[in-house]
Specification:
Length: about 70
Amino acid sequence: MDISIEELIREYPGSVRMLMQWGIKCLACGEAIWGTLAAAAAEKAFSDGQIDELVDDLNKSCATMP
């Protein structure tokens, strides 16, 4: 959760789609890129369960990316 969104999308460009599906859509304006995944989840008021599910989804998705 401490990974920056910038680092996440640099390493796994396909993660943008997953983030957008979870409602973390402010990637085009650049604001969200400078924060961490934890900060983005907090801004969306995700529960601990939702955060765990988001991280699981990202891990599964990123594991299949080239």
